[in-house]
Amino acid sequence: MTVYENIGKSIPRVDARGKVTGETPYSGDLSMDSMLHMKMLFAGRPHARIKSIKTDKAEAASGVVAIYTAKDIPVNEHGLQWQDQPTLCGPLTPPSPNRAERSDSEDEAGRGGKPGQDVVRYIGDQIAAVVANSEAEAAAAVKLIEVEYEDLPIVDDPLEAMKPDAPRIHEEIGDSNICVHYKIRKGNVDEGFAKADVIVESEYRTPVQEHAYLQPEAGLAYIDEEGRITIACGGQWTHEDQHQVAHSLNLPPENIRVVYPAVGGAFGGREDMSVQIVLALAAWKLQRPVKIIWSRQESIIGHGKRHAVILRAKWGATKDGKVIAIENEIIGDGGAYMYTSNKVLGNSAITSTGAYNIPNVKTDVYGVYTNNVPGAAFRGFGAPQALFMAEMQMNKLAEKLGMDPVEFRLKNALKDGDAMGVGTPSPSPVSVTQCIEAARDKFEWQGKKGKKKEERIANHLKRGYGFAAGFKNIGFSFGYQENCWAKIEIHGKGEIDRVVLHHASAEVGQGTHTVMIQMAAEAVGVPFEKVKLISSDSATMGNSGSASASRMTFMSGNAIRGAAEVALNKWKAEERPAIGEFKYLAPRTTAFDPETGYSTPNFAYAFVAQGIEVEVDTETGHIRVLRVISADDVGKPINPVLVEGQVEGAVVQAQGYAVLEDYKTKDGRVLTDQLSTYLIPTIWDIPEKIETVFLEIPDPNGPWGARGVGELPFLTVAPAIAAAIHNATGVWINEFPFTPERVLRALGKI
């Protein structure tokens, strides 16, 4: 085994001291001379046409400097995948009578009025931005804005929204509310089911989840010393933020600069726009710094959520334990706008077969517009929903066949060269068997499924054990050319005195900046302490891609190695300083075939298996998660302690998703819009014991063999808990969160 100087070492995080002492500034901490403050007017209603907006009273209010509405946005649209969302919703206004006064894009998307921009489609749509001398004055003025609405029919159920006669969410787009449809057709499912000895049919429902990151949306925009509109905010991809702001303001991208101070968590929730465009607009118009901080309530209604999904499954197996045919229908609630629904649900399609070799597959995946808060990126990105269905089906088939669920999984697990559901083999080493075996052995699974009643510690307290396995892609998918840039400077004369790494990656709490310094030190061949990182500035760095899709270690590591090689060659040629830039291009991927789903949608995958022990109180319905074993193939842990932190954080967040977090809406309105009503796990709720098992099966394309782990441990917690509840009580619960009320109802006690 190769011994590295910096790789595989649990080096303390470079940002730890500043964050724990409070010295590190976050977006909400920033301040500048002559700074103004902004507050937003949110729609507060799920579906309506705006007839008029009157701002005269607000404009006359104390301290108000400016008010911006839809007519002030040069190109009033944005979106990460589709530009289907108005930046500010407002009534359509006549175009400028003189064509010379209009920009090329104004007629369609800006002051000329783009069709649909006068409609609010969920309660978090933004109507107006008030800029004042103080936050309190801005907030008071927001209440004085008068908006005349014409309420429209509310469609908050995706099944209803799919009907041909359902009211349209976007009349200007397509001919129905169905905005995504993917198909997988592999083999012949009718022949497969004819050969099956047992068939399990079930419907599952997975809930919305709120990101609940510590830092709500906040930012400061100003004009920098080179005249660029600069937005300092929390985000996950500086260059994508820059692109969307430039598009909406109809300015060249080089006129927009995005920088990230410390970011207080993201989990996918900062991929989409929140405050960036309106902040940039105000700073541009006023030529003064403008700051905004959303309240927690504004944050909860204003940013996207994990997709709620309905999953219908029919799976068949032979009596010798081989899954032979599956038929799935997956319906995702996309909410009011596309955000990343097309990519999230594409990932659901890929993972809907589980990590198993199944010869006959028919799957249909739909994304549907509704008047709910948009479905967005969230840790796991469509895989937790699909894998809940897949792993529940595996457990039910094993029970029906009288087989141990772990042995049943091993009998069906993918192996190198096996065709996945999309018809092609995994490009990464397929390690699901090793993960299952490692989790089984560490959990001491043998005998768990046949536990005795004597294991109860009280008549109403029952112990149960569950198991699940899964997989997920690393990096962007479906034909996008994955890429990542890095620059390395080597300084010194005879010997290397210092190394400067430039990289635009966001640090959203996962420790990626520490890992990148470790990789740069290893690539150049210097101690960790000699490397300095300059990060997260779109003006001075090439595109790093997003801190998402478990991609940043994989992608940045390859870019850093390439930049180091270029710089070292210059160093050897006695160029001082030696500067190397490199843009890493990942192996190509392909999009789904529209009729069969056949594709190579990803260049790397990672695999996981988990065993979970729970305690069920049959009197109160309360679930306690006692022990979690998570076996994750990380390829190579660059920093083992940080990997353990990712595993523990993912497990706790997934436990909240499975057991505690109960997001409620009524008629498109969010009822749980505060952390006092939307409950997330505290230290009293987390599992008593989380144990991480590393598997190190190198990915041939990964830097030092590494692959990402940020999402992996989240994926299968919910189905493993569901299996443990069944093991304890004998009941299957096909919908979560597993709240006391839902558990008691399943037990027939209410």
Index terms:
single chain; 750 residues; alpha+beta; Aldehyde Oxidoreductase, domain 3; Aldehyde Oxidoreductase, domain 4; 3 domains; seven-stranded mixed sheet; five-stranded mixed sheet; 25% helix
- In one word, what is the shape? globular
What structural category arises from helix and sheet content?
A: alpha+beta
CATH level 1 name of the largest domain: Alpha Beta
**Main beta sheet:** 7 strands, mixed
Number of E-type strands: 25
Helix content: 25-40%
What is the second-level CATH architecture of the largest domain? Answer: 2-Layer Sandwich
Based on CA atoms alone, the radius of gyration comes out at 26 Å
- What's the number of domains? 3
- Which range does the strand content fall in? 15-25%
What does this structure look like?
By secondary structure, this protein is α+β, with helices and mostly antiparallel strands. It folds into three domains: about 25-150 and about 215-265 and about 270-300, Aldehyde Oxidoreductase, domain 3; about 185-210 and about 305-475 and about 595-745, Aldehyde Oxidoreductase, domain 4 (2-Layer Sandwich); about 485-585, Aldehyde oxidase/xanthine dehydrogenase, molybdopterin binding domain (Aldehyde Oxidoreductase, domain 4). The strands form six sheets. It has a seven-stranded mixed beta sheet with strand order 3-5-1-12-9-10-11, with helices on both faces. A five-stranded mixed beta sheet has the order 7-15-14-13-8, sandwiched between helices. The N and C termini lie far apart (about 60 Å). Residues about 95-110 and about 450-455 have low confidence and may be disordered.
